[in-house]
Every structure is written in structure tokens, then in C-alpha cells.
Amino acid sequence: MEVDSANSRHAALLKRKATDSINEILNYGQSSTSPQKRTKKTAHHKIRDIDAYKKIIKTYKAPTWYGCAVTPRDLADFGWACVKKDCVQCVECEQYLNTSLPNICKVSFNVYNSSLQDIHQKLTTAHRTTCKLRTGAPPFRITEPSSKEIMEGVQGRLTDIKNIEEDEFKVDIPSDLHLPKLEGVSDKFMYVAILGWFVSKPKRGALIFCCDYCARELAIRTGNKFDAIHNHERWCPRIDSDEHGETSWQSDINIVMNTKNYFPHHNKYHGSAIYREAMAARRLLDNSLSTIISPSLITPPSS
Ligand SMILES: [Zn+2]
Ligand SMILES: [Zn+2]
């Protein structure tokens, strides 16, 4: 598909402006808060149930799930698991939600867009009124994980590397990246593990890379290159960026390496309704460019 570059540049500009305003809202109040207050944790922090999320995200697999403009992550945030084609079900109240969208080539942009908005609204309203998942899950990182937690995660993902040789796959590690060291673990394995990948070798000649945050599972022929960043789904929490543009895996490395100038980003609005709303709005916005295709982008360019 040809993409009208002027249009997509304009859309990118609008998206950036909107993201900036949301970031402003998210950071509002940070500078006026004293350090003492900033480190004091508020009592109403809800902790994200990561295991429940992982279980749900696993249901979004082909051929049942073949993609929709609403991402599995958005659906999982509200407790919706994929049960059959175009149909998700709440793991708590067992209500169903239809996720089918009209064919973008057959309906007007407005019709398509309002169907999409409709699904987004139903993420909340399709639950039973008493369902606790109606309000959506809190963000993944309300508080930073500890160095110990991060390294335990890394070690857990490296349990199968014993029978994998160093030269069985290639990766491009950014040259300025300082990786944590673990005895008997090369930088290559450390890099893929810190980026959230489980590596295994179920049979000769092939390696399997899995991410339990986006349920991506990739087989590569031994000796081939593996792109540890871009092989995640674009919505994967492993590659999320915070309000300062730092990805969660980079901040994991910084925590473990105790990098200078590193300050955990405490924000008195974390966990509050406005923070969650702003985070949700930003995610919607992040997804909007790649999921909503405006008619101008699908019209063939005039020659
Ligand atoms: Zn429900
Ligand atoms: Zn992932």
C-alpha cells in the first residue's frame, strides 16, 4: 500500500502535539512537590495483576485472533480474553463482546471510526454493572521494580540456555549499551533476556523466542539474526516508553546498573484517575496512527 507521505507527516505532527499535551498533564504537579512528598507512596496504589494479564494475552493467537484495530493489550486491560473469531469474553463476569469491524475499503472512514469508538466504549460498558474489571487495570509500572526482581526475571527467562551455543543466533546490541553481568551468561543472552525473551531450542536447527507480555512466539533457523526490539508487538509492555521517552527495558538496565543521574519517576498523580485516564488516552493515540487508516492513505497516488 502506498502511503501519502505529506498526510502521514501531518498526522504524525498532530499525534506528537497531542502526546506533548498529555505528557504535560501527566507531569503536572511534579516540580512543585517536595522530594519528601514525592517518595511517600500513596496508600491507594493498585498493583497490576501481571499473571492474570499474561494468561489473557495468550488467548490472542492465530487463527482465532487475526488482528483488530483494538489491540489485545487494550482488551486484556479490561479483562477481555479471546474466545473465538471476532468474539472476546470477560474472564470475570463472562459477558461477550463482538470485536468485528466493517471492512475499511467498503465503508466510509466515519463509519469505520465510529465502529472502532464503539468497541472502545464497550470495553467498559459490555461488562455486567457489578464486574470489577469494568474500570480497567492499573498501568504496568506504578512503581519501579527492584534490581533483584529484574534479575530474577532475567534468570527465569534464561533457564533453557544451557543447551544453546553462543553462535546459534546473532543479535545487534547497541554499542553504547552497558548490560548487567551474570556468571556464565554472555552479553547476547543477557540482551535478549532483559528485553523480555525466553529462548529455547526444542529441536536441532531452530531456536524459539517467546515473550509472555505480547505472546509473540518466533522460530528462527540457527545462525540467523534476531531483532530483540522490533519482534515484540508494537503494543508490548516490554517496549513501553515512560513520560521521559525511556523504554521499560532501558529503565530495568539502569536500575540494575544503578546508573548515575537515574531517578525513579515518582509522580503524585500515579494511580489516580486522571493519571490512568491520561495514560489510556496516550496509548489510544499511540495506536491511532497505525490502526486507523484514513481514506487519503489508501487512495492510490495520482501518477
Ligand atoms: Zn466483566
Ligand atoms: Zn513482547
UniProtKB/TrEMBL annotation:
Subcellular location: Nucleus
One MF term in the entry's GO annotations: zinc ion binding
Coiled coil: none
InterPro entries (alphabetical): NuBaID_N
Entry GO CC: nucleus
Name assigned to this protein: C3HC-type domain-containing protein
Pfam families: zf-C3HC (PF07967)
Keywords, alphabetical: Nucleus
Residues annotated as domain C3HC-type: 49-166
Key word Nucleus present: yes
UniProt keyword Coiled coil present: no
Domain of life: Eukaryota
Main location group: nucleus
